Records
---
Amino acid sequence: MLRYIICASRILASPHPAMTRLLLPSFLVLCTSVLNAVAQSQYLLGLGIADITGPVVETNMMGYASLGQTDSGLHQRQRARAFIIGEPNTPANRVVFVNADIAMGDTGVRRAILAGLATKYGTLYTAQNFALSSTHQHSGVGGYLENLLPQITSLGFVPQTYDAIVQGVLLAVDRAHASLKTGSLSLGNTTVTGGNRNRSPTAYLANPAAERAMYVNEGDDQDTTMSLLSFGSRGFLSWFPVHGTSIYENNTLVSSDNKGMAAYLYESSIEPNAMPGNQTFVAGFAQANVGDTSPNTLGAFCESPGQPYDGQPCQANSSTCGGTVEDCHGRGPGFTLDAFGFHSNEMIAQVQVNAAKSLMGSTLAPVTGSVRSVHVYLDMANHTFTLPNGTAAQTCPAAMGFSFAGGTTDGPGSFDFVQGDNSTSQNPFWEIVKSFITPIPSAAQVACQAPKPILLNTGYATFPYAWSPSTVDIQMFKVGNLVMLIIPGELTTMAGRRLRAAVRAQLIASNIIDNSAYVVVAGPANTYAHYITTREEYAVQRYEGASTIFGPSTLDAYIDKYTSLVPFLADAPTGTPVSDAAPPELTSGALSLNTGVVFDAAPIGKSFGQVLIDVVKSAAYKAGDTVVAQFVGANPRNNLRLEGTFLSVDQLVSGAWTPVRSDSHPSTTYQWTRVSTILGTSSVNVNWTIESGTPAGTYRLRYFGDSKPLIGSISAFTGTSSNFTVAA
Ligand SMILES: *[C@@H]1O[C@H](CO)[C@@H](O)[C@H](O)[C@H]1NC(C)=O
Ligand SMILES: *[C@@H]1O[C@H](CO)[C@@H](O)[C@H](O)[C@H]1NC(C)=O
Ligand SMILES: *[C@@H]1O[C@H](CO)[C@@H](O)[C@H](O)[C@H]1NC(C)=O
Ligand SMILES: *[C@@H]1O[C@H](CO)[C@@H](O)[C@H](O)[C@H]1NC(C)=O
Ligand SMILES: *[C@@H]1O[C@H](CO)[C@@H](O)[C@H](O)[C@H]1NC(C)=O
Ligand SMILES: *[C@@H]1O[C@H](CO)[C@@H](O)[C@H](O)[C@H]1NC(C)=O
Ligand SMILES: *[C@@H]1O[C@H](CO)[C@@H](O)[C@H](O)[C@H]1NC(C)=O
Ligand SMILES: *[C@@H]1O[C@H](CO)[C@@H](O)[C@H](O)[C@H]1NC(C)=O
Ligand SMILES: *[C@@H]1O[C@H](CO)[C@@H](O)[C@H](O)[C@H]1NC(C)=O
């Protein structure tokens, strides 16, 4: 208001009073709009959460790309969290950032979400201002990606997973939209200690010493900074790079890894009595330049029983044990505490929660200024551009190097088929697609990708449909002095720093933001175009370099493109950016070998939900004990129970049973086991490990199922254990 009065009084004091009085109304409108643009400090804010969990059994999990990792139950549901930020007076100046508990964004999923948003909201939420970012977790349900390569281990496309993500993200945006109200934003950062570690440090060392020296106090070969945008009492959005690989590849319970766990821990600390996913406070733990980060902070060791190097650190440059990658595994901080990484997961989540809490508990810098967005499609096969030193450069059609097959210390070996036909003939999807093996690379492709030795020439593999994307989404959001670079892949630590620094310099040079310009990277988002290393790291060809699919100039091409789009973030941008064509739609023609549920049956003389193994009634349980009940089950693919639960722990409160735990509490697990395929029988285990501080009292376990008869429709049933006692 004060600045408005100053603006108006300057006009009134102008040397041409008559003219000024005549034009006063339009001057005052000008003052209003100038000040809105310059000092926008109130935003329209909306936050929402929804469930995106696909089929939790008989489906390949996404992230490790391991054929053997077929899900068998649930640890924690996957969620999408939507954050809408807009200018109160100009609906068009609005962005929506979705942070989803999935391994990566995807073109097909994004396309379907945008179609749903267009149906409901017209032109309010579009390809330009909607971002689908991922937490890059590796224990969620697979089969939703549009390109062929990531579908191989899931035996093709799984429509049920895809639909759960699309519908859940739409619901999260609906909820955020319904909650829109004005509020203010603030921004800050802090150091996260013990939250990540570089998993390819020998590649990082290939970067120039002078450049590395600039970051010795910011984590050296890791970014240890968490950046956080506070929505006040309503929630926050934070960025910190760490792979979602705390839970190991040998786990088969669907979960959300460390960022989903961090969100659960934070949200339930604010509203402890709300069921997970039903809180109003929304905690966003988004991914950043994740490429070479690992949550396995103890390092990587040989798990080679009987070998002299068993328990020793892996060979540093190649991450091998006795010459092969299979035995080299990273270890998280809770390595000794369980066999699947669940304790490490909670510990890596907790350090992120602690960092976010310290930021939310301090006074952060207010965010002021306009909300803008820019988006183009960029075809990265054969993209030509000029490097800052004036030399012409180009990207190449996608290709995977040999080290891609070696995997990483977070999950050695990838995509089982690369081990040769001999060992992969169990994969029926591979049996179909192997006849379309990627074409032999041309001399031009070999030269373009050099020094990468090409294993899979995916950019030239378009049968039965494209194996890798060629066209990616390039997108930036500006909220006051904060700029989010939405990245279609996994930038390594140094690649992220170079891109952020280049865009920041351009924002300042173009007078779009002053010295307070603050740039974060978010992703893998929108499209999954694998990794992005620096040119120097690329030359080393560790896993990340081998998976930098568009060749050695990939990062420079992105730096060129993102910086060139900076002028479109101006308060009054001119023109529209040049975009390549949108990528082709592949989902409708996708192969799918994942078969549906045939039928369910209860064993003779038993009924669905009947207790097979009951809880202990004779003695009281205490904190730390696990209560287990087993029921006659049915296939949970019959009904995903989205926004619901497969189980509950109920407490008897004043004579009434009250649900106190759901399937998303980390203390509970839901496990489904097929007993007989021919008879259609299965069983379900519901486990609850009693947390310390659980009130003494009478409890019971319930199981919620849905059975499919051979003929007829699916029907719901409930199983209930006996009552049991928890002692103080
Ligand atoms: C943290 O924020 C301060 C203040 O904006 C800034 O100077 C500093 O560069 C930030 N740190 C990182 C690593 O971005
Ligand atoms: C291992 O990597 C480091 C850093 O890039 C390099 O200096 C060294 O020569 C490499 N050692 C071997 C055996 O390749
Ligand atoms: C979710 O929260 C709302 C509002 O607090 C409440 O009415 C509803 O019962 C809750 N749902 C569950 C499943 O807890
Ligand atoms: C799961 O994998 C981890 C990492 O390789 C290993 O340490 C652990 O022993 C495995 N768990 C089981 C039950 O095999
Ligand atoms: C890229 O360029 C090469 C050589 O000119 C050509 O063979 C290939 O078809 C191009 N690929 C794409 C996807 O444009
Ligand atoms: C420009 O930079 C590229 C990439 O680092 C390098 O290959 C090229 O030789 C440089 N050109 C000149 C003229 O220095
Ligand atoms: C698999 O490889 C082994 C060793 O190379 C060979 O002896 C065997 O015949 C192969 N099996 C098949 C089915 O090709
Ligand atoms: C649940 O409890 C049963 C019986 O103790 C046990 O076999 C199973 O491993 C437990 N499941 C999980 C996920 O802890
Ligand atoms: C469990 O508690 C309920 C509520 O008090 C009671 O009606 C029921 O008889 C109890 N069941 C058993 C098996 O003790």
Note: The chain has three domains: 2-41, 43-379+468-589, 611-726.
---
Amino acid sequence: MGFSTDAIHAGQEPDPVTGAVSVPIYQTSTYQIPALGVYKGFDYARTVNPTRTALETCLARLEGGKRGLAFASGMAAINAVFSMLKAGDHIILSRNVYGGTFRLLKGVLNSFSIETSFVDTTDLANVKASFTPATRMAFIETPTNPILTLTDIRGCADLCHERKALLVVDNTFMSPYWQRPLALGADMVVHSTTKFINGHSDSVGGAVITATEEAGERLYFIQKSAGAILAPFDCWLVMRGLKTLAVRMERHEENTRKVAEHLEKHPAVRKVHYPGLASHPQHELARSQAGGFGGMVAFDLGSYAAAKALLDSLKLCLLAESLGGVETLISHPASMTHASVPPEERKRIGISDGLVRISVGIEDAEDLIADLDGGLAAAEKAGASTSTEAAPSRSL
Ligand SMILES: *Cc1c(COP(=O)(O)O)cnc(C)c1O
């Protein structure tokens, strides 16, 4: 079946009792067992819940994996993946991996002697040079947040497999509609379903999809043991979101292309980062490993004052963290999502004080562009001033 058909039907057969076409929300913590020692496959809802199973089956199908597991958040999903490791194991990660992943490793899992190397994975030579005898896993994000640099998934998978390490790809920014890392050799995919997969900014959740049954079994054991499961109502919401994933992603991308092309022509904008633009240094890699370019764009206005002027004057684009919703969300990485990254490190990874990130929604593109034009006019005025104010920081 095609992607859209699977998104609507996989794991979601009509209810055998009533024929309900929407999978019921099994809001129960336990199940009556028919007789002592006789089970229908349902004992306790942390272990198994039919609403969750429906979502997990659908996600596995969409990513082309063997097993899907749904978690209480993207971070819970990522923590479950890292729980497959043991003390002394080493992980190679993309240098500008999601901030929460960085915090989990540096502030929590460091106490369990999980060793890390954060490297620029855009160049496979860096990945290759980072393996140690203890490396068990590489964890990449492509494209990265917020400046959308890419990592060659197949190249990374080959390097990992030569050394018996697992490749995990955080596919949150692309969703399985545009990018399916398992088909390129990755062993596991993780998602924050909070973002494009649910798509309506009304649920926090996460998922892992595995290429093999063995990895799926191990993660299922971790899921039921650690217990960070996604609640039935959220499973239902995410399934509802999935049904329109294909049409949403098409529209997100169409709008993002229009916005990116408009920004690229605007005199107030120094640089636009979007893999769909021919000017993106990895445009060809983007074309070769994904079906589309996604709904995220970042651009540099040259100074904190200019970025602040733009953000303060927008009316339609909402100033907020998060991404992937139907509504356009705009953010200032240096003072919001990346505020805990030290300023020198921010500079090194390309997050300047003038950088603005947009998660382009599915509104009418003309309305978004009109709103941004108002902000860009304000930015131009502020940029001409001599303010050298820097973005505020905060701690990990
Ligand atoms: C949001 C996000 C996460 C974390 O997911 P939560 O649902 O917020 O826990 C992980 N990776 C990426 C790329 C994200 O954008």
Note: Residues 25 and 232 are 6 Å apart (CA to CA).
---
Amino acid sequence: MWFPVSLNLKKPVNSKFTQQELPACKPILSPGWVITTFAFIGLIFIPVGLASLFASQRVVEIVDRYDVACVPEHLQDDKLAYIQNSTVDKTCTRKLKVPRLMRSPIFIYYELENFYQNHRRYVKSRSDKQLRSREGESDTESCSPEAKTSNGSVIVPCGLIAWSMFNDTYGFSINSKVLDVNKKDIAWNSDKYHKFGSDVYPKNFQSGPFIGGGKLNSSIPLSEQEDLIVWMRTAALPTFRKLYGKIEVDLEPNEEIMVTIHNNYNTYSFGGKKRLVLSTTSWIGGKNDFLGMAYLTFGGLSLLIAATFILIHLIRPRSLGDPSYLSWNKNPAGYSN
Ligand SMILES: *[C@@H]1O[C@H](CO)[C@@H](O)[C@H](O)[C@H]1NC(C)=O
Ligand SMILES: *[C@@H]1O[C@H](CO)[C@@H](O)[C@H](O)[C@H]1NC(C)=O
């Protein structure tokens, strides 16, 4: 081998770092250690998994898909004509049965399926500057095609996300007694106080020939338009739930809830599904069996591995090798240095 002599490699400083003599953790994976570690992980994870699963099972959830059922029988073949006809009454009533006692607060969500709020051009079609303060009103470049009206005045809030705001509404009653829906505090406080200005009022919104969704009251500042704030926090997956409001009384088992839906929102043109969800919560949040299952699976696997190692260790313990084998002058493999 030939190396260029002029390379002038410097000898490294003689320190613990360059000589790789720093203190280090070198665990010796003896059978006892490995078995104890796996058993310990298993014993921690299984109770956590059981607790999560139990909490998730206690959550009471009512899910009702209504996008098909809310179109009258004789219009089922042409749902699009139905939803686009503004003279047709879109009111629809559904009856829901409370399966078990539902403790307040009961969260009301709408769930959309096959709605890609994560599409690149859709996600970018908004102006955060404009939403935040009145000075940014004319900042609408990112909002096209919903930036300005045909006569050139700015739209506030601009962009496709705001334009396509969900606009179905729900009313609830039990035995003709109305259940109040609390629509306050459904948005994140960080959004309300830092992203949506209290001096920004809707302007020229939904005034074009194509109406994409809900309208906004132009005398209420954006920071208090919580439905809009919730909608503008775009979902990452095509099936998502968004908070609509809260019912703040307990619902007794077997009670029948009458839901009055204004079925306005057009998901029919792209085959989207709409569901209404009523759900209680527990300490893990809403209904979610996955977390508990994941803990149980992992804990179970760890215990299984621990048990396997114990068996192997009992049946065929591994004998310690002869350490003198390692010394340099015994070189049975005959490697040359
Ligand atoms: C809209 O609905 C009304 C009442 O049902 C009906 O008379 C009219 O023809 C419909 N319009 C269209 C465009 O389908
Ligand atoms: C609701 O949104 C749809 C579009 O999805 C629109 O056609 C309709 O006019 C809107 N209705 C109301 C009452 O805002």
Note: The two ends are 18 Å apart (CA to CA).
---
Amino acid sequence: MATETTTHRFATQAVHAGAAPDPATGARVQPIYFTNGFVFESTEQAADIFAMRRTGFSYSRGSNPTVAALERRVAALEGAKAAVAVSSGQSAVLLVLMTLMKSGDAYVASSRLFGGSLGLMRRLDGRYDLKPQFAKGLTPADFEAAITPDTKAIICESIVNPCATVMDLEGIAEVARRHNLPLVVDNTLASPALIRPIEHGADIVVHSTSKFLGGAGQTIGGMICDAGRFDWKAAGSRYNLINEPWPDYDGLVITERFPEISFAVACRLFGLRDLGPGLSPMNAFLTLTGIETLPLRMERHCANAKAVAAYLKDHPAVEWVSYPALPGQPGEALAARYVPQGPGSIFTFALKGGEPAAVKFIMSLELISHLVNIGEIKSLAIHPATTTHRQLDDADKRAACVGPEAVRLSVGLENVEDLIADIAQALAQVG
Ligand SMILES: *Cc1c(COP(=O)(O)O)cnc(C)c1O
């Protein structure tokens, strides 16, 4: 489960980390192990694996060799001690919250999160009494002001969907450290090619691998990465799942048996063995293959996004563009500090003609697809106010740059002149 240490650089790890030629056959590509069960050598071995006294495969809900290769690779790219793959990014956020907290607990959350995360948090509050305490703004001081004695964690995104706002991770990590709280960062929009939140003080990193990591828009998946740094033991019974004996595992205390990867082990035992949203080996294979080109793709995603954003900014039909790699944008300094390569390829822009113009623009696109995913090889557009961000009220929509006049783009890897030509013809029809 732990990652091998390696001196290789990022692009090399993206291709090699966590997988090796198959010792049984010599297959160079990671085999897909489509098997639910694994034959035990002895009853002792079976008992030891069940009780977590020794590592090994037993049943693919909890772990599988193809999925484990993906976990090792993402852990290596994030600089984490271990990672746990799950069936979706949504499950990754859910399992992190459920593993850290029990009903009655609270956590400070960024008020600018992926819409699915906000919906999940609302339902967990209403039905399971896990309380989100939303920070009023995006600064570290806003996060600190939201902390109460019930707070068990802080959660934010590295780059915020859909305005490409870059968060001050080091400032927020500093707040988390001061209050002895683990910092959870959803790194989906940056991917480890642009930001490695653990280097900036995060304790737990989550991903929707459905986006840039998989890259091709083929498969849904999620990942939970454990930096192995948070002192769960010092926090005592505040994190009882991680730090108190599990009677059905012969009194296993995770922090004692697995001090370096406690959170990952707790997620595997509670999140996968008990709750069950494991990743299919097929999806793990596709994601693993996608990651091999991640550094190359992110370079092009950022370059294309910057060129498209610059074109839009100068267009007479466009009111504003939210892409902090452009000069004079709010958040420019944070973007320059955390993402010198560029703040990814998902951003919004607004049309002077308001909602009718935004709708007309989207419906006039020919090359760029009208669809809800992000972070794919293909370029995509959507109207967030009526789809992904429809649950926000009007004031929150404007604050999150998803008012009715806004269009979200996820800029892909096509030739950028072709992308700009498609945008130009669609803008011409808006009038
Ligand atoms: C898409 C997304 C998720 C949810 O991931 P799924 O794989 O779609 O379940 C979570 N966080 C962010 C930032 C996302 O963009």
Note: Residues 88-90, 114, 116-117, 157, 161, 186, 188-189, 208, 210-211, 220, 222 surround pyridoxal-5'-phosphate (CB under 6 Å).
